[in-house]
């Protein structure tokens, strides 16, 4: 009704030539004012209602009963614009932005340290809820603590002391008392970590999902805009934690069942070092024990034995037992994911190693996914696309190829390439997120409060070009593995994959085939298309389901379109 009445009023004003003042009330907690930077970030209800405000001669923004006038009358109010406004009866001017994102405000008189957590007041507001609570807050991260924009760990407190905590929920994220505000400062486009976390959850589920239907394979995230002590701090990922609760690991009951270790540096975590351990210490050779809790037990023996197995067992014993010690589906997805992103810090340092219960295999959980898609940990570009990331475990699996795992993983790669890893799909995911941040003026606001933030539109082109080259390399890498499985004698033998296929059909020996003619026939022998080989695939998006023949170098090959 509000939308209809306002629209009708604008139409009548236009028809009758009336002058009219419009006051837009913004409730408390749905805006924040940064006095230092003369900046206001605000929600606005039903912004589409104001797509034409030319019928008004005055528009007043009322922020908790303080009124502000536009310096220049806008014709429309949009998320994709900014507005100069002046506080009524003063000369105080501000740049006003409307945001679609939740707004978080944190206020504390205390200095925020690495640890322990200090008391602060927390306010969260979006279109669905306003949440006000005490929190404990501390700095999080290693080298990132030197950045002007900090990452924080939050715990929601019932009182001022933090002796009692309480769970909170934000949108479709989990209900919990422990949260991360990830600053994204070292990401040139503020989207790599967001996209990567979503991508992992999209491709991978835990192998025990039937027993634990609420278990997640990683952390989900959502964007928020954050103010600290009245100062705008920019966009953050509000992130779930990787912990026993997220993974639904079995509880300690006097015996160790569920296990969780966090990779914090290099060593045993990459299966490159194997020192003795000390059960008086929660840290060992690149790992930190996260579960069982210190109050339960500190015992490195299970992880020590697994590391010993990976690094020192005989080839025969490793070959026969690796997939009972480590979950194969998780290994496959993580190897593919790690190398798609080329996440150089995530081979052992930014990784969790977990076990659901004592008789189950270990598995990986990624975290801190910022140095990827052509950048490294400090945000610098590293334009390398033609390598494979690994660690000691991965190297041994590649070398021994137990149960012909390389073929299974390669087939899985091409299955993903048919949908979620399709060039167009991945590019659209990146471009959509980029356009959202750009059009909502996020990059502009970041640059206002962090003058050394050097946003450039060229960063998007770099990321997309890097991804295209990376996909081409990985297609060749996995295609060669399949070719080796099918071709043991003739170096010029051609192999098609995947088969069945959906959008593209790939083939091996591209150097042999390049610029040579191909012809595509339906199964009745009708010529459908012909051309010359320019890449290691041809598109079959427009083909109906069924069997087809393709001639490559005068040899016919059958494939199925599914």
Keywords, please?
562 residues, alpha+beta, 12 helices, flat, kinase, CotH kinase family protein, Spore_coat_CotH_CotH2/3/7, transferase
Note the main sheet.
Answer: 7 strands, mixed
CA radius of gyration is: 28 Å
Provide the structure class. Answer: alpha+beta
How does the overall form come out from the CA principal axes?
flat
Overall mean pLDDT? 92
Task: Report the strand count.
Answer: 28
Strand order of the largest sheet: 1-4-5-6-7-3-2
Distance between the termini: 49 Å
Number of helices: 12
Uncertain stretches of 5 or more adjacent residues: 3-18
Question: What is the helix content?
Answer: 25-40%
Strand content: 25-35%
Number of domains: 4
Walk me through this protein's architecture.
Helix 6 packs across helix 8 and helix 8 crosses helix 11 (about 460-485). The chain has 4 domains: about 1-100, no CATH class; about 105-240, no CATH class; about 255-480; about 490-560, Immunoglobulin-like. With about 550 residues, the chain is an alpha+beta fold. It has helices at about 1-15, 190-205, 245, 300-310, 315-325, 330-340, 390-400, 405-415, 425-440, 440-450, 460-485, 510-515; strands spanning about 20-25, 30-35, 40, 60-65, 65-70, 80-85, 95-100, 105, 120-125, 130-140, 150-155, 170, 175, 180, 220-230, 230-240, 260-265, 285, 285-290, 350-355, 360-365, 495, 505, 515-520, 525-530, 535-540, 545-550, 555-560. The strands form 6 sheets. It has a 7-stranded mixed sheet with strand order 1-4-5-6-7-3-2, with no helix packed on it. Strands 8-9-10-11-14-16-15 form a 7-stranded mixed beta barrel. A 5-stranded antiparallel sheet has the order 18-19-17-20-21. The two termini are about 50 Å apart. It contains 12 helices and 28 strands. Strand 2 and strand 3 form a beta hairpin.
């Amino acid at each position: 009704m509000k939308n209809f009445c306002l629209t009708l009023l604008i139409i009548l004003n236009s028809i009758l030539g009336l002058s009219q003042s419009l006051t837009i009330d913004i409730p408390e907690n749905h805006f924040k004012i940064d006095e230092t930077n003369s900046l206001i970030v605000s929600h606005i209800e039903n912004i589409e209602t104001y797509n034409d405000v030319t019928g008004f001669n005055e528009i007043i923004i009322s922020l908790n009963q303080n009124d502000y006038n536009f310096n220049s009358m806008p014709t429309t109010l949009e998320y994709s614009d900014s507005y100069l406004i002046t506080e009524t009866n003063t000369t105080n001017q501000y740049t006003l932005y409307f945001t679609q994102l939740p707004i978080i405000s944190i206020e504390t008189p205390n200095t925020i340290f690495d640890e322990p957590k200090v008391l602060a007041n927390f306010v969260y507001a979006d279109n669905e809820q306003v949440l006000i609570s005490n929190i404990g807050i501390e700095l999080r991260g290693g080298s990132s603590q030197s950045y002007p924009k900090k990452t924080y760990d939050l715990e929601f407190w019932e009182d001022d002391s933090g002796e009692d905590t309480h769970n909170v929920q934000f949108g479709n994220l989990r209900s919990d008392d422990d949260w991360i505000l990830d600053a994204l400062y070292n990401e040139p486009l503020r989207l790599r970590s967001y996209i990567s976390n979503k991508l992992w959850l999209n491709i991978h589920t835990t192998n025990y999902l039937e027993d634990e239907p609420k278990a997640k394979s990683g952390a989900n995230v959502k964007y928020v805009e954050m103010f600290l002590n009245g100062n705008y701090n920019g966009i953050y990922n509000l992130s779930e934690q990787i912990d026993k609760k997220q993974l639904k690991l079995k509880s300690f009951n006097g015996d160790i069942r569920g296990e969780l270790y966090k990779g914090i540096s290099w060593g045993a975590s990459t299966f490159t070092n194997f020192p003795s351990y000390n059960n008086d210490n929660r840290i060992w050779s690149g790992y930190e024990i996260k579960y069982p809790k210190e109050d339960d037990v500190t015992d490195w023996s299970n992880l020590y034995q697994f590391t010993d197995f990976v690094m020192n067992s005989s080839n025969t014993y490793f070959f026969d037992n690796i997939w009972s010690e480590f979950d194969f589906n998780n290994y496959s997805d993580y190897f593919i994911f790690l190398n798609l992103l080329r996440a150089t810090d995530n081979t052992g340092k930014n990784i969790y190693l977990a076990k659901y219960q004592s008789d189950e295999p270990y598995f990986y959980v990624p975290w801190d996914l910022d140095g990827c898609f052509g950048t490294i940990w400090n945000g610098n570009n590293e334009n390398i696309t033609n390598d494979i990331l690994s660690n000691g475990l991965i190297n041994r699996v590649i070398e021994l190829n137990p149960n012909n795992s390389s073929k299974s993983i390669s087939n899985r790669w091409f299955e993903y390439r048919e949908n979620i890893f399709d060039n167009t799909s991945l590019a659209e995911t990146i471009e959509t997120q980029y356009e959202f941040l750009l059009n909502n003026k996020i990059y502009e606001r970041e640059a206002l409060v962090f003058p050394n933030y050097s946003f450039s539109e060229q960063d998007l082109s770099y990321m997309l070009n890097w991804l295209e080259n990376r996909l081409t390399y990985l297609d060749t890498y996995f295609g060669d593995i399949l070719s080796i499985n099918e071709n043991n004698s003739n170096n010029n033998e051609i192999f098609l994959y995947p088969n069945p296929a959906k959008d593209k059909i790939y083939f091996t020996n591209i150097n042999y085939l390049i610029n040579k003619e191909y012809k595509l026939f339906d199964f009745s022998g009708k010529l459908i298309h012909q051309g010359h080989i320019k890449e290691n695939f041809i598109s079959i998006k427009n083909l109906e389901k069924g069997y087809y023949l393709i001639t490559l170098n005068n040899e016919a090959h059958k494939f199925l379109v599914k």
